[in-house]
Specification:
Low-confidence stretches: 1-50
CATH topology: outer membrane lipoprotein receptor (LolB), chain A
CATH class: Mainly Beta
Largest sheet: 11 strands, antiparallel
Mean pLDDT: 80
Radius of gyration: 25 Å
Oligomer: single chain
Distance between the termini: 36 Å
Length: 280
């Protein structure tokens, strides 16, 4: 049962994966006045009011200019899987490691994403190349060093356009950050992720369905800037998912998954046009 269950989960994870701020603080203005009084006259002077862009507004304006970008991504997900059968319970731990290189063009709605995923302890490896061009999605899947195949669909996955690192940054930087960390070299903006976003991310990376019960334990988004340039986007989340699985050999079983994941995206270039070609 262990090998069957883990194989289902690992393949579902790979094929389901996509590769993974309120308003800015108001600018303060200062008005000062000084009055001098005498028996004959009163003089009042008032300094001019000046307004400058806040640091958060400067970061937001830079993120808003990004229409296309390349990135390197790494994902580490720990899964604690409990399988409940009528006469037994089995618990296994699985670690998922994903390395991703991608190009996403939000202006032209094109993308090329190469993802290699490895699962431990079985060391199952799957490589997926996903290309989106002219409204069609090309997916090439290679299992280990053996079989590979290409699938073509006449649609584009919404997840790519909504939950890529730059789109997440654009969404949350409109809000007031929950925490700001700064040093001489970089600024980190920390946000508590909306539970709906955490749910969507976990559904994609774990290939869960709308029928799966998901409890969100935590979710954070960390945007790192060097100067005013977006350099890194980190997503951290923890969920508990419960679903009913019908296995041809084992019958109906309840699967409970405790998942804790960290996804890191390094932004390697912005606004550089790259030609996208379908895989062969």
């Amino acid at each position: 049962m262990k090998k069957t269950t883990l194989a289902i989960l690992v393949v579902a994870l790979i094929l389901g994966a996509s590769g993974c701020i309120g308003s800015p603080s108001p600018t303060k203005t200062h008005t000062t006045s000084k009055a001098q009084h005498s028996t004959s006259e009163t003089t009042t002077t008032t300094s001019k009011t000046t307004t400058t862009a806040s640091p958060l507004e400067l970061l937001k304006s830079q993120v808003d200019t990004i229409g296309r970008f390349t990135y390197n991504g790494s994902t580490h997900v720990n899964l604690n899987i409990t399988v409940l059968l009528p006469n037994m319970t089995q618990t296994n731990s699985v670690a998922i490691y994903m390395i991703e290189r991608g190009y996403i063009d939000l202006d032209s709605m094109e993308a090329a994403i190469n993802t290699t995923t490895r699962a431990e302890p079985d060391n199952t490896t799957v490589t997926v190349v996903r290309v989106v061009k002219e409204g069609r999605t090309y997916t090439k899947t290679a299992l280990g060093s053996g079989v590979s195949f290409v699938n073509v669909t006449n649609d584009t996955p919404t997840f790519i356009w909504t939950y890529n690192p730059v789109s997440l940054a654009k969404k949350y930087i409109k809000r007031q950050p929950d925490e700001v960390l700064k040093n001489e070299r970089e600024t980190k903006l920390v946000y508590i992720l909306d539970w709906r976003d955490v749910r969507t991310l976990s559904m994609v990376y774990l290939a869960l369905t709308n029928e799966t019960g998901i409890v969100v334990k935590e979710g954070r988004l960390i945007l790192t800037f060097e100067g005013n340039q977006l350099k890194e986007v980190v997503v951290e989340y923890a969920v508990v998912a419960t679903s009913i699985v019908k296995d041809p050999a084992l019958g109906q079983m309840t699967v409970k998954i405790k998942a804790k994941g960290t996804v890191k995206y390094e932004i390697t270039s912005t606004n550089k046009k790259i030609e996208v070609e379908p895989p062969t």
